[in-house]
Amino acid sequence: xxxxxxxxxxxxxxxxxxxxxxxxxxxxxxxxxxxxxxxxxxxxxxxxxxxxxxxxxxxxxxxxxxxxxxxxxxxxxxxxxxxxxxxxxxxxxxxxxxxxxxxxxxxxxxxxxxxxxxxxxxxxxxxxxxxxxxxxxxxxxxxxxxxxxxxxxxxxxxxxxxxxxxxxxxxxxxxxxxxxxxxxxxxxxxxxxxxxxxxxxxxxxxxxxxxxxxxxxxxxxxxxxxxxxxxxxxxxxxxxxxxxxxxxxxxxxxxxxxxxxxxxxxxxxxxxxxxxxxxxxxxxxxxxxxxxxxxxxxx
Amino acid sequence: xxxxxxxxxxxxxxxxxxxxxxxxxxxxxxxxxxxxxxxxxxxxxxxxxxxxxxxxxxxxxxxxxxxxxxxxxxxxxxxxxxxxxxxxxxxxxxxxxxxxxxxxxxxxxxxxxxxxxxxxxxxxxxxxxxxxxxxxxxxxxxxxxxxxxxxxxxxxxxxxxxxxxxxxxxxxxxxxxxxxxxxxxxxxxxxxxxxxxxxxxxxxxxxxxxxxxxxxxxxxxxxxxxxxxxxxxxxxxxxxxxxxxxxxxxxxxxxxxxxxxxxxxxxxxxxxx
Amino acid sequence: xxxxxxxxxxxxxxxxxxxxxxxxxxxxxxxxxxxxxxxxxxxxxxxxxxxxxxxxxxxxxxxxxxxxxxxxxxxxxxxxxxxxxxxxxxxxxxxxxxxxxxxxxxxxxxxxxxxxxxxxxxxxxxxxxxxxxxxxxxxxxxxxxxxxxxxxxxxxxxxxxxxxxxxxxxxxxxxxxxxxxxxxxxxxxxxxxxxxxxxxxxxxxxxxxxxxxxxxxxxxxxxxxxxxxxxxxxxxxxxxxxxxxxxxxxxxxxxxxxxxxxxxxxxxxxxxxxxxxxxxxxxxxxxxxxxxxxxxxxx
Lengths: 299, 273, 299
Fold this sequence. Notes:
Shape of chain B: globular
Number of helices of chain B: 11
Structural class of chain B: alpha/beta
Strand order of the largest sheet of chain A: 1-2
Distance between the termini of chain B: 27 Å
Number of strands of chain A: 2
Mean pLDDT of chain A: 84
Strand order of the largest sheet of chain B: 6-7-8-3-9-10
CATH architecture of the largest domain in chain B: 3-Layer(aba) Sandwich
Helix content of chain B: 40-55%
Low-confidence stretches of chain B: 251-273
Largest interface: A-C, 46 and 45 residues
Order of helices and strands of chain B: EEEHEEHEHHHHHEHEHEEHH
Order of helices and strands of chain A: HHHHEEHHHHHHHH
CATH topology of the largest domain in chain B: Rossmann fold
Number of strands of chain B: 10
Distance between the termini of chain A: 41 Å
Number of helices of chain A: 12
Largest sheet of chain B: 6 strands, mixed
Oligomer: heterotrimer
Radius of gyration of chain B: 20 Å
CATH superfamily of the largest domain in chain B: P-loop containing nucleotide triphosphate hydrolases
Helix content of chain A: over 70%
Radius of gyration of chain A: 19 Å
């Protein structure tokens, strides 16, 4: 029982920051940006490189550098590609973001190689928490994710920047009319979204390893989280990440044989990644506005 | 022909159309008037099957209109136009006209491939009809131009002409004269009269009271989603409720143009008649 | 060299069919199918399974087309009232589910190894003669597909599809059932994609889950976007260009001495940059959609 909860939390922390960044960018730019997910391996790769080149900066310094690099990359891409593509239409922006995702992944592979790499972290014995096993790094990842989430939502509620972001996400025309520089706030928002994704990628790389192809693995679960929560809804993205994590954990642990009155039979592990896809399809077909949201966004 | 029975439509907490019942007879021209936000376009969307009523029923020629099959009323002879036609930029004027016709052979992928003769004959007949209708709205010379490249007023005329390709029994028009220049507006009224003489009933949402007064047999005035008057156009200005509906929305600094123009238009048309 | 040229031409013809299919869906009808490779894959696997079971290849090809048409019908029903970008994400997810099934259901699909050892086309011939015969067949089928697509685009069926692409409300107001149109065009596009997939299997005598990666969908999109959305000739030109480029890039390493693990990245990068450049510099493609001047063409 505890193990299920812990596994779910670990998976949630993998997905939540990236999904939140995706929903945040969607809220201001109004198209599903596939390239957003690539900010995760980008941030992690930069952090790894910084950690190797400047060991004096420590792991935290390297992580901050990586997250900022991811944010900067997201902002530059928005400024020089997506602004123009989005003007043509959401379809062009979507195809363009796919193209950019491919290019980013190929570029990262060319620079950093395809072999998985690891951060140089001290090995500590895992803890036994009421029967559940988890490592120091996993605890750290869950805590850091939680701190980032709390910090982010506090910023959104309490600061003038947060108010501007919410205003633009709710109604760009009205926000502009009331004196908000929509373009600048959008760029800052996209920067924040990239930073969140970069942080998520760094944490994922810390706990397991840096796989440059992680964007491909993350794409559909992260989109599933954001879509299940309602694209553009920020608390929804976090809850969506939890929902996907819980569904993945549960489905892998349910003994279908027992339900059918036969011997033990589990869903083949190969279908694990399919759960996110299936949830996307189910959500889009039955509740396109998001399973966890109330607003409508149908054709 | 077309009837609404106790139709209500609300969006969240807002009731846009409130217990409306109405009846449109064959070959009638009915104006739908009311201040901004009174529910005219929502009512038009309900009547054409583009929106499902929250409660109540709409029937056309004996058949219930259902928003789940929004395309069906059009095939039965109940058609509509749009306030903003947004015509396609990569289709020609004549193509949009043909899309308004009923070409069963060409519309079927199988028959398109297997019976080219039937497709050609059908297309030739509708091309003649389309050119005739285009000539009536002065667009024949632009037949091969991109539809989306026309001016706003021309797009309205083309939208109207395309709707006529299937000889509808009832045509719902959403602000046919908005954006159309005054000289064309006069001819638009003549054109609509000819359409009625061809056997089509018209329901017209319109702000231009002069235009309405000139053209309509009858007016339905809406306020806050409810019908507040059902009378001849020249009786509107004498209706206390109608005048209040317009005056009530007046904000300081906004002149009384709608009411003034409306009464003047209605009176002058009455005088002329 | 002759062998290589024949190979490139055969692959161009096969992917040309898939591109014409996607062009009918996306270019003519505005349906952003990001799961095109699933339809291709259904045809490919159906042909592999049926020929292995002893069916002659023409019958297997027809069955593969029917199966893929059914797949197209299903994704059309699935997203019947979704907004375009959401439907695009749903098709991406469906395609990944199809690939997962291919990967995991060993008894039917051979699992990760795929299905090999298929007799293929013209077993009586060998060497260049066999390649020439295959090319003639593939080119004839491409021609038939392109003529079909062109014919469907110019009759009332195509007019309604184009009206649906640009203004679905107007199409509905003129009495056209756009859901039925979507489903029909996806079934037709599915049959075409299934034909391409079946030919692919027969030509290479092999099909595996790695041929169904989302990147392959993207490759087909590149052909269509580069050639010109909405123009059948554009899709064929795009298929030839992209296939040649894709097959030619590995030769670059002989010229500029690239390490071989970089060529894969370089390929992906090149394809991504072509799409991006095409979207930003020439959104209508090399062979733009033409306006149909019906009046001038009248007898």
